[in-house]
Write a structure and sequence with these properties.
The chain has two domains: 6-83 and 196-236, Periplasmic binding protein-like II (D-Maltodextrin-Binding Protein, domain 2, 3-Layer(aba) Sandwich); 86-193, D-Maltodextrin-Binding Protein, domain 2. Helix content is 38%, strand content 24%. The chain is built from ten helices and ten strands. Strands 1, 2, 3, 4, 5, 6, 7, 8, 9 and 10 form a ten-stranded mixed beta sheet that branches. α1 runs antiparallel to α10 (223-231). The N and C termini lie far apart (36 Å).
Length: 237
Amino acid sequence: MPNDNEVTVLSTTAMKTAFEALEPDFERATGYRLKLAFGPSLRLEKRLAEGEGADLAIVTHAGARDLITRGCGSPGSLTDLARSFIGVCVAKGVPRPDLSSAEAFKQAMLGAKSIALSKPVGGGASGAHMASVFERLGIAAAIKEKLIYGAGGPAGLVALIVARGDAEIGIQQMAELMAVSGVDIVGPLPDALQSITQFSAFVPTAALRPQGARAVIDFLRRPAAKTVIKAKGLEPN
């Protein structure tokens, strides 16, 4: 039998460390318990479109809007939560690449022995964006053999690949890089190459506990929760 106080949440991996920090306070404040599952936004959007159940979903704004338009979510529930920037990491203590300009970033990519990132198709939003960046910089062919793709989700974070020594440089959402202790965050991409992803929450049409889902949204919009979200690498709305 389902637990009436349990709220099922499907969320982008970028929100994982924020949820881990906020979960105890949420449960004490509301009486609800969270059942959390994380993954790349594009993959979650596909699962939701195929009918997977959840009380609350947190994915890209575009994906959430599309799912609502297709009848998979409640129109009045769409709520912007946080923006995410793409960043670069290296193993702890090693020299950091120059990210001061698009040209400096290009030269860093050409000079790197290996680069870990999200899959451009079916992975996180950062992977698709970086594929277009490499094309725009004219280096896609030159670095193709250097690219190592993360499996996605909490166990497939790009920074884990870097921390293990299997890649020299990692590129992913800043919040996901910050979730791994064994790397140094070099910084965000240069402004000319940056892509800002808006993550938004919505209540799926088939949610069993819509009131619980709205309690989560309301909690995440509180000033104290926004402070935690910011500390975990996201820019709260």
